[in-house]
Amino acid sequence: MTQTAINMGDKLAAFNDLWSPKIIAGFNGHDVMVVKVKGEFNWHSHPDTDDLFFVLAGRLTIQMRDGDVVLGPGEMYVVPKGVEHCPRADEETHLIIIEPAGTPNTGDPETAVTKTKI
Amino acid sequence: MTQTAINMGDKLAAFNDLWSPKIIAGFNGHDVMVVKVKGEFNWHSHPDTDDLFFVLAGRLTIQMRDGDVVLGPGEMYVVPKGVEHCPRADEETHLIIIEPAGTPNTGDPETAVTKTKI
């Protein structure tokens, strides 16, 4: 047990790679992660889990088949499990995301990145 | 499915009562909530769940039996399940907290407040 506050600014200062989530805490079998994104990801869905996005800085468009949601700082959206989505950020954007530990970020273990702890 | 960003500022503007979590989203069987706190809560623990705190504004001291953690804006802490804690805020403090749906905020259904959706 680490009795230290987890500071988002410190964590974000520790890396610069894009679309590569970093684990900052564990919570009930989930990974709490920060990630920097810019550009467009791919269309995917997670059959077994909702996908929580919280914007710390920048602007994130979560494209979905029946409409987009645009998030600025201090805004959150939960993509329900099974719903196809494609995140896009026209500027560099910093997010908190929460997914069950081991969830492939692309929805497919073949193409997923490894999530590292920082 | 609501295709609308969940804005923390808007949600926090919608209520003023203290220590009364408001549900703003669902995520994998959990309630994502905002809450305003000031003063000291009570010592309690949750035997079956971790307790995630994220500070939006103000300053939260999470007192634990083997030491305190102090959180400012943009800082997070996860109290592991079973660990006794007593949150305290010397000024009004605004938080995001995440707990499984139905978790009593005091650790005891007898004394817990009802969490309402906003």
UniProtKB/TrEMBL annotation, chains A, B:
GO molecular function terms noted in the UniProt entry: isomerase activity
A Pfam family the protein falls into: Cupin_2
Cupin type-2 domain span: 32-97
CDD domains tied to this protein: cupin_YdbB-like
Record SUPFAM superfamilies: RmlC-like cupins
Keywords: Isomerase
Protein name in the entry: Mannose-6-phosphate isomerase
Native organism taxonomy: Bacteria, Pseudomonadati, Pseudomonadota, Alphaproteobacteria, Hyphomicrobiales
